[in-house]
Write a structure and sequence with these properties.
single chain, 54 residues, mainly alpha, 1 helix
């Protein structure tokens, strides 16, 4: 049985933590702005055609 051997465990650990942090940050950012994007796509044509801008 072969095991993966890590040459520099501290560096690899830091890169994994940074990668996971980046993925979490991207996920939270997308979740925050998704409401805005959906609202624009659903109600944008109504506002354009009906002059709904106030």
């Amino acid at each position: 049985m072969m095991f993966a051997k890590v040459d520099e465990p501290v560096r690899d650990g830091v890169f994994r933590i940074i990668r996971i942090g980046g993925i979490v940050a991207l996920g939270l950012t997308v979740g925050t702005y998704m409401d805005v994007v959906v609202n624009v796509l659903q109600k944008g044509p109504e506002h354009i055609s009906g002059g709904g801008f106030r």
